Amino acid sequence: MTGQVYKSTGSWYTVKTQLGEFYQCRIKGKFRIKGIKSTNPIAVGDVVDFELETSNDEVSGVIYNIHDRKNFIVRKSVNLSKQTHIISANIDQVFLMITIDNPPTFTSFIDRFLVTAEAYSIKTILLFNKIDTYNEETLLEVKYLAHVYRKIGYECIGISAKTGKNVDKVKSLMKDKVSMFSGHSGVGKSTLVNAIEPSLNLKTKEISNQHMQGQHTTTFAEMFDTSFGARIIDTPGIKGFGVVDMDKEEVGDYFPEIFELKQDCKFNNCLHLQEPKCAVKKALDDDEIAYSRYRSYVQILEGEDENYRTDNWDNE
Length: 316
Ligand SMILES: Nc1nc2c(ncn2[C@@H]2O[C@H](COP(=O)(O)OP(=O)(O)OP(=O)(O)O)[C@@H](O)[C@H]2O)c(=O)[nH]1
Ligand SMILES: [Zn+2]
Prior knowledge:
Layout (H helix, E strand, L loop, with lengths): L1 E7 L4 E5 L4 E6 L19 E9 L2 E9 L5 E5 L7 E6 L3 E6 L8 H13 L3 E6 L7 H16 L4 E3 L8 H8 L3 E5 L6 H8 L4 H8 L13 E4 L5 E4 L13 H4 L4 H6 L17 H7 L5 H11 L4 H9 L2
Parallel strand pairs: 3-5, 8-9, 8-11, 9-10, 11-13
Antiparallel strand pairs: 1-2, 1-4, 2-3, 4-5, 6-7, 12-13
Helix pairs in contact: 1-9
The protein binds guanosine-5'-triphosphate and zinc ion.
């Protein structure tokens, strides 16, 4: 039988078959995934093959194969430095929720998030939430940011999870796909999920109340079906993606506007810093590239993200 993992608690996996039946499954033998030392071999979103087994009149499944992953996101263990934890696999898209204030979302956060999502090959859609609370000035800021990010290919939608404004647009993008919601604590993720699918109310409440989760607690993602053919992966305690290690030369490839220009730089290993005849620096001077994006690029390159990591990413 083949199915998809909806939930995992470490040793047991809840798997849903194509016929819509749920089975509790265990793993047979050991799985190794190339290049990754992971604390969990199978994650939510994985498609697995399993066979049924009956003991004491209880039917359960034994997983013997994982299908290739389209993508997956990992979190580094805080204590076991070399180990990673796979949060979830086979994600179609992530909605990054942004608020201008209450709480503020800075472009450095947005850009690092986007770089990581690009590195994981996960499509990101930007949702500017709480537009019902914004005055003219704040709305202008939303417009400006939406302009910056649309120009480089990211879809941007202004929404209000509270009043329901444009929530139908979000729902139509979610249809037949597996989506995640990310963003700072308080941006309105639970409120939006509840607006999208009120029957999930209880679960999201439960999750947002788990504020005791410290660094030593392992958190598990869970997948939920909705009534309109969309699936949501909820990742308690993890509002971001974790940090991907990348080489300096690679960083620019995850900024679409920088990637597009790099073949026009004089040096093919140009890092777009002080090099002569750099197409990226020229585009910056010509206002073709947003200064905030370039600043984020340089910050990531220089590893000026330590504060960012501890303040906004891991401990949220
Ligand atoms: N005015 C307004 N308030 C909103 C909107 N969306 C969410 N809120 C409020 O913002 C607060 C935080 O919303 P949550 O949905 O709990 O935020 P969250 O992102 O799930 O937060 P965590 O669970 O801590 O990660 C709540 O008081 C919501 O009522 C919105 O569109 N407009
Ligand atoms: Zn360059």
